[in-house]
Amino acid sequence: MFDSHGPDVRVRGTAQQLFEKYLQHGRDATGAGDRVAAEAYFQHAEHYFRIMNAMAQAAQQSQQERAERQASRQRNTSSGSEDGGDVSRGEEGDAPVRGEEPQPDIQPQPELSEG
Fold this sequence. Notes:
Protein name: DUF4167 domain-containing protein
Radius of gyration: 23 Å
Shape: rod-shaped
Pfam families: DUF4167
Domain DUF4167: 2-56
Number of strands: 2
Strand order of the largest sheet: 1-2
Distance between the termini: 28 Å
Region (Disordered): 56-115
Helix content: 55-70%
InterPro entries: DUF4167
């Protein structure tokens, strides 16, 4: 949740919500003929657009790292059982690692179009 103090307006919400609100304020200002205010709103919208992209990129990287760790664990588990070795339940690999819980999928966000 973000709390934003934009030009002439205070907006609160997620990065996606703030992006959409500032974009709409920019369009409204453009329609009213106030190009300076419109540019200020569009700049705020762009800021939150960049935040959304950074969050999506971080989530994607985290998801890839989790998949790699899981694949590595599966390879280690399968190689241990092929040798006839008995993997005991008390080892470190059994406890869930913090941050490996399922995370919500973040959908790609629309690009900011100028117009």
